[in-house]
Design brief:
The chain has a single domain, classed as Lipid/polyisoprenoid-binding, YceI-like (Lipocalin), CATH 2.40.128.110. A six-stranded antiparallel β-sheet has the order 3-4-6-7-8-9. A three-stranded antiparallel β-sheet has the order 1-2-5, with helices on one face. It has two helices and nine strands; from the N terminus they run E-E-E-H-E-E-H-E-E-E-E. 12% of the residues are buried. It is mainly beta.
């Protein structure tokens, strides 16, 4: 799940928390053998921003237009810098700004699915 913090237009200091996921991403695994952690290290991913899903059909198009289209960002780039049992360091890059974010992960069905969990404040991480 990705948490996006939005600040309303004007002088309001209030932030609005919007939770959601990206339904489409491409994972390119560089290592071919070894443990799950070894397979994850140095893997690269492209997160397709048009697949943002806040579970709100009215809000999702607004997020696509008011955030990602305004910043001309079709893709958020990622690279798994390090992976340890249940945790990994993911380097995210958007708008030519990179930052490393720690994520928890879990496996289902003998590594067929990866579930990532951690909230990311794109503004605080200076990615957005």
């Amino acid at each position: 799940m990705l948490t996006i913090f939005l600040r309303p237009f004007g002088n309001s200091p209030r932030e609005v928390e919007v939770c959601g996921t990206f339904d489409t991403f491409v994972l390119d695994v560089k290592n071919e053998t070894g443990s799950v952690e070894n397979l994850m290290k140095n893997a690269k991913m492209n997160i397709i921003t048009s697949s943002v899903n806040s579970d709100n059909e009215i809000r999702d198009p607004k997020l696509r237009v008011s955030i990602f289209k305004v910043f001309k960002t079709d893709t958020i780039f990622g690279e798994i810098v390090d992976a340890k049992k249940g945790e990994c360091d993911l380097k995210l890059k958007m708008n030519n700004i990179s930052n490393v974010v720690q994520y928890d992960y879990s496996l289902k069905n003998d590594t067929r699915f990866l579930t990532w969990s951690r909230s990311v404040n794109l503004v605080e991480q200076r990615i957005l």
